Amino acid sequence: MQDPLQACSSSAVEVCHSRALASGGKRDDPVLSAPVLTAPRRDAQVDLRLGGVVIDSQLLADKIRQRILECAFKASKGHIGSALSIAEIVAAIAPRLQGLGSSDPGRDRFVLSKGHAALAWYCALRELKVIGDDVLATYGADGSLLGTHPDPALVGVDFLTGSLGQGFSFAVGSAMAANRSPTPWSTYVVLSDSELGEGVTWEAALLAAHHRCAGLTVILDLNGQQALGFTRDVLDTSAAPAAFAAMGWCVSDVDGHDVDALNAALSTPSERLAGRPHFVVARTVAGKGVDFMERRIEWHYLPMTADQYSAATAQLPSVADA
Fold it and tell me: For site-directed labelling of 153, which of 19, 76, 137, 139 has its Cα 20 to 30 A away?
């Protein structure tokens, strides 16, 4: 019987420990040592278009990261580290969503299962002109639709999330509905690694594999942190990628801050998926882009002082506002 991991792609190879060691990790670090597969890389960048305009995914990610800091500071809100962790992930997903911002029943769906990182999604919506500056400026204000968790009353948001693990279930329901539709759509979900500790996550994963939800893509934000500690210390979930493969998912492994790698994984051809849902392990860093926030548990909740905001923005690439 063929190994379920190898069945994902004849060209895929196991990720060795050398990458973890090169990045300063330990050989037995459960966050870094999971036996998963690399996504096939492409020589050319993926051509993402929105309204006929080619989207530069890295520039989009840089603008999202800049806006995250700006909005979080103005609103004096936390969850900054979690939002910075997924800037490249949402930059890769958002432009490929057909019908984003519309009420078309055949539009693609996006589920931010780690709802506390909603600010990253709001910033993506602003950059893609789904919402305007006037709406984004209300983040965290009384009566605003832009709370610290997403509200489906806001254009560009399909599901209310925040109770960890539940968003994945919503996504599976969407994918199952798409399977029955004469005009099926794709469903994308961003899952935090701490949600692997929720029982409902595994129920949803089994259901998606059983019903062959080929239009479902789950991107795991594997930053190794959660609200009160490092994931490996709270619950070791390093076997999750192999478990997903054994259940019948196609599993890929990418650097979650490499937009080319993310775009390649999200463009995996249907021949490779072979009718299976896709589990993309995106290895990320909480607080990415700001040195005093990176891999620091306290930045799950803390807001920034004026001095911290100035120091943080000084570290980001300079991007033109538009």
Answer: 76
Q: Where are the beta strands (DSSP E) in the chain?
A: 49-50, 53-54, 109-112, 187-192, 216-222, 225-226, 229-230, 250-255, 278-283
The set of residues, in sequence order, having a beta carbon less than 8 Å from that of 296 and lying 6+ positions away, is 81, 286, 287
Q: Which of 167, 55, 74 is nearest to 113 (CA)?
A: 167
Q: Name residue 69's beta-bridge partners.
A: none
Tell me how far apart the alpha carbons of residues 276 and 305 are, in angstroms, rounded to a whole number: 46
d(C-alpha 96, C-alpha 92), whole Å: 7
- Alpha-carbon distance 75 to 303, whole Å? 9
Per-residue pLDDT of the chain (322 residues; tens, 9 = 90+): 343 333 343 333 233 222 333 333 433 333 333 333 333 332 223 445 555 567 889 999 999 999 999 999 998 786 788 899 999 999 999 999 999 999 999 999 999 999 889 999 999 999 999 999 999 999 989 989 998 898 999 999 999 898 887 899 999 999 999 999 999 999 999 999 989 989 999 999 999 999 999 999 999 999 888 777 787 888 888 899 999 999 999 999 999 999 999 999 999 998 899 999 999 999 999 989 999 988 887 767 788 899 999 999 999 988 766 5
> How many angstroms separate the first and last alpha carbons of the chain?
54
Per the CB < 8 A criterion, the answer to whether 27 and 250 are in contact is no
HSE-CB of 176 using CA atoms within 13 angstroms: 14
- Give the tokens for residue 292: 């005093």
Q: Which CATH superfamily is domain 52-314 in?
A: Thiamin diphosphate (ThDP)-binding fold, Pyr/PP domains (3.40.50.970)
Domain ranges of the chain: 52-314
Residue 238, both tokens: 């390093």
